[in-house]
Amino acid sequence: MRVSVFGLGYVGTVFAASLAYRGINVIGVDIDISKVKIINCGKSYFYEPGLEELIRISIEKGLLKATTNYVEAVKNSEVSFIMVGTPSKPNGSADLRYVELASQMIGKALREKSEWHLIVVRSTVPPGTTINVVGRTIERITGLAMGRDFGLAMNPEFTREGSAIHDILHPSRIVIGELDKRSGDKLLEIYKILHGNDMPPVIRTSIYNAELAKYAANAFLAMKISFINLIARIAEHFPSSDVRDIAKAIGLDPRIGLHFLGAGLGFGGPCLPKDVKALIKVIEDLGEDPALFRSVLKINDNQPKHVIKMGEELIGSLKGKRVAILGLAFKPNTDDIRESQALKLVNELLTRDAEVIVYDPVALNNARHVLGSRVMYASNVKEALKGADLAIIATEWKEFRDVDPDTFRKLMRIPAVIDARRIYEPSKFISKGILFKAIGLGDVGSQK
């Protein structure tokens, strides 16, 4: 099987390398020559656990190569996956310019090819995009008819940064939105090669259903996070309350589940914020009311400000105080800082004239491009904590979990800690005389 992957961003690169690792011949296409050169050298231009090894092995075996030549990529493959970004426009709608560009490239290449070819959209797109943008664009350029002369499918990806390889090689489900049976059958062939006897559940459905399923999944996950963060704020008003116990009490109900009930700083990254915004715009355009999802975003947007308020309750005004931010990536095991709640927290602190020092195990270089000289950068946890008046855990890296209370107490000028990711046991800090607050934690002590 020979496939081409259009778009070598985070998800496209991981997907291409994973397919190649399982023996599928993959040609990755991107207009960024620097990405192409790095991948062809067997390297990765971003951090994702295990990815660079997969790329190196696949390149050495000749199963993976990257190129800017989209015509050759289509001519030498049977299936083309579109995996380009769909960022938010100012009004929140999905920007489809890269989807349109990839469709134009594939259309131009198909004019030089006589064999039937399958185009699969894996980018997150509003319902109707696969047929009305991708399919119609290719029809217009080629004069061919979708369904008769070329196949079309929508195959949403459900990968999580930090565990993306596992999610591709061991997915919970595969959703195939197919224009016709031939398109669905061809796409299923690829997954049979990829998974063999370990085939996950496969849902074969309409293209519109597949498009909407991705938005529904991300919106639901975002909703669970904002829900538990609002419950956490309520819990903070009552003595001896802890949102972790509340989350467990409701999460053990099989109708609810424990996943995504970890209260904290809120959601970020390249998917959830933009996809909720895009879904709101879709709902508005349909004449329906997106109030539920507006509330999800509002709660999330206010979470960094809530943490700032907690800091002021601990040590008073933050003006002139040194605040150590531990973690900048939007989640652990990635260097991705897009829509990171930690960066929003930093910006809130700077507006209050705080002196901010930051540390992250892998995301510092990316953060420098955004934060510049407005903050100080530490090379390790101890350097970040030394002389600080307040420490805030903003990303739940394992490295931070291993820091004991005595380290905070000995290094900080004022030992005050806010656990905004709930990685610590509060009693261990409080018993050491550390000023301590955490998301969803009421005053520790009597319930009276």
Q: In words, what does this structure look like?
A:
- Strands 3-2-1-4-5-6-7-8 form an 8-stranded mixed beta sheet, with helices on both faces. The protein has a 6-stranded parallel beta sheet with strand order 11-10-9-12-13-14.
- 45% of the residues lie in helices and 14% in strands.
- The termini are far apart.
- The chain has helices at residues 10-21, 33-40, 51-60, 70-75, 97-110, 129-142, 164-169, 181-195, 207-235, 243-251, 272-285, 291-315, 341-351, 364-371, 381-385, 398-401, 405-411, 426-430; strands at residues 2-6, 25-29, 64-67, 79-82, 117-121, 150-154, 174-178, 202-205, 322-326, 355-359, 376-377, 390-393, 416-419, 435-438.
- The radius of gyration is 24 Å and the shape is elongated.
